[in-house]
Design goal:
The complex is a heterodimer. Helices cover about 55% and strands about 10% of the residues of chain A. In chain A, strands 2-1-3 form a three-stranded mixed sheet. In chain A, a hairpin with a 2-residue loop joins β1 and β2. The longest helix of chain A is centred in the last third of the chain and has 25 residues. Chain B is of the alpha+beta class. In chain B, β4 and β5 form a beta hairpin. The radius of gyration of chain B is 21 Å and the shape is globular. The relative contact order of chain B is 0.13. Classes of the chains: A mainly alpha, B alpha+beta. Chains A and B meet through α5 and α6 of A and α4, β6 and β7 of B. The complex binds zinc ion (2 copies). The site of one zinc ion has 8 residues of chain A, from loops.
Chain lengths: ~180, ~350
């Protein structure tokens, strides 16, 4: 791909801008990128943040720096209009939707804070109904495997019924929602 | 055989707390929320509780922080009923409380809802069950911000997932004196927990009171987090008891002297600041729990830890006081309390 500015050299700096959910991409060569403000990736060091969190964030920024030629700027949440830059400064999200708006960019941070990125705890009945049923099915399927392995056929039959029952419920739920 | 009683009533564990962070779906978080929307959060959560199946909801009262004076707010912070942070947003924030302050629900702190249940002693499971019940009750009428991958969505990325912070307050004088506390600090952080001094600055834990809590909230279930925290606490309590046993075996006159000197200061001093007072209470408490002295009630010593705090002290004295005058009142109050 050729640089969009000079149309001469190979573009190896790719800038993704996401403003209010609309994604625009800019592909530049090293030289044009250096001249351009678009590629200004100076990272502000922020104060007043809890120490441990700031450490995590700094480490996170290092990791971001390690991704070659992938610059992220001006991503913002379409719901609350908070920018990713703003999040980096305050360490706080503006609304629940920020998580999906910044998803790709916060995964390394989440991994660093928690060591995991998949919630396995409580699920609210209201917004988690389908998920809860799915997880129950998964659990029962594991139990079924164990039961079969241990030759507990009565238990296995009961588990099969339960799974069938839950799968029916899941189908009904998904049709409704 | 040791001559002090076992972990649950040894006085090593002061309190257990469970806190859930929750937010309302489709609504910006409190820091960026308008006055009217903030008020709506307060009204919605309170009425959600009142109209829920939670039978004790009628005993809960709603207090808007802007209707409270600063001293009362600060005293609540000292009793661990509310956080220091909520005071910064006091004009838009509220709390829902039960009579004995076991349940406290902060509204518009960092998250829309910060539900806390606090018990004396090592009672994490009981606190969790209560919190869970109240959480379910609120959810009967409110849709939480929740994501299948990230769990309960919170303002700060450190809380996301379960949104749960389980914490236990511990009195660890023997581990501190024998300098074993640093080993504990290292070990605890390796299993996803943190430990910090509750009073005082930096690593200096004034009065030898520490708080241990889970650091990780995503990727583990609430039960897993609580069970591993309980395991960690039991281990620490065990170590503290061992350290005390060694101290007891030595039966050194130095320890006995320290305990009695501390008691003497508490009983006779005419001016005491918090920084001097907390270590003295800790020393007397240790002496009491180790059977060195018998004349002081442990419950009174526990209460003193809160009573000597600046805002609580001024409330008890029914007036605002300059720091110097506070020290005089504090000394007088401690004297009378230990009579
Ligand atoms: Zn170019
Ligand atoms: Zn947002």
């Amino acid at each position: 791909m050729l640089c969009q500015k000079c149309n001469q050299r190979e573009a190896n700096v790719h800038i993704t801008k996401i403003i209010n959910g609309v994604k625009t991409e800019l592909h530049l060569c090293d030289e044009c990128a250096r001249e351009s403000n678009e590629a200004n990736i100076s990272i502000p060091i922020t104060f007043g943040m809890p120490m441990s969190f700031q450490n995590i964030l700094e480490g996170f920024m290092e990791m971001m720096g390690g991704i070659p030629h992938q610059l992220i700027e001006e991503i913002s949440c379409p719901m609350c209009h908070m920018t990713f830059e703003n999040f980096k400064q305050t360490g706080r999200f503006g609304c629940g939707n920020c998580y999906s708006a910044f998803n790709d960019n916060i995964l390394p941070l989440m991994k660093r804070i928690h060591g995991n990125i998949q919630h396995t705890g409580k699920v609210p009945k209201r917004s988690g109904g389908i998920l809860k049923v799915k997880r129950d099915i998964e659990k029962l399927k594991n139990e079924l495997k164990m039961a079969v392995a241990n030759e507990e056929y009565e238990k296995a039959a009961r588990l099969r019924d339960e799974i069938k029952h839950l799968e029916e419920r899941l189908n009904n739920k998904q049709d409704k929602e | 055989m040791s001559f002090f009683s076992k972990s649950n009533d040894s006085g090593i564990v002061l309190t257990s707390r469970i806190r859930f962070a929750r937010n309302i779906d489709g609504m910006p978080f409190p820091q960026v929320l308008s006055d009217s929307a903030s008020k709506k959060v307060i009204d919605d959560v309170y009425s959600a509780l009142l109209n829920s199946s939670f039978s004790e909801a009628k005993n809960l009262k709603l207090i808007n922080l802007k209707d409270m004076d600063r001293l009362n707010m600060m005293a609540m912070v000292e009793r661990h009923v509310i956080s220091r942070d909520i005071i910064e947003n006091f004009q838009r924030a509220a709390i829902i409380l039960d009579n004995d302050e076991k349940i406290s629900i902060m509204l518009n702190e960092e998250d829309h809802i910060r539900l806390q249940v606090m018990y004396k002693g090592l009672m994490l499971k009981e606190a969790f069950e209560d919190a869970n019940k109240i959480d379910d009750a609120i959810e009967e009428n409110i849709t939480y911000a929740f994501d299948a991958k990230f769990g309960y969505l919170t303002s700060c990325p450190t809380n996301v997932g379960t949104g749960m912070r389980a914490s236990v307050m511990l009195h660890l004088p023997a581990l501190t004196f024998t300098k074993n506390i640093n080993n504990i600090l290292n070990t605890v952080s390796q299993v996803g927990m943190t430990i910090r001094g509750l009073y005082g600055e930096g690593s200096n834990a004034l009065g030898n009171i520490y708080q241990v809590s889970n650091q990780v909230a995503l990727g583990f279930s609430e039960e897993e987090i609580i069970n591993s925290l309980i395991a960690v606490i039991n281990k620490i309590v065990d170590q503290e008891e061992k350290a005390r046993e060694i101290m007891a075996q030595k039966r050194s006159i130095a320890l006995e002297d320290d305990v009695y000197r501390s008691l003497g200061l508490l009983k006779f001093a005419r001016s005491l600041d918090t920084n001097e007072c907390l270590p003295l209470i800790s020393q007397v408490r240790l002496g009491d729990e180790m059977g060195i002295i018998k004349e002081v009630d442990i419950k009174k010593l526990n209460e003193l830890i809160t009573l000597i705090q600046p805002a609580t002290l001024q409330l008890l004295d029914k007036r605002e006081l300059e720091p110097k005058d506070r020290d005089v009142v504090r000394a007088r109050m401690v004297r009378e309390y230990l009579k």
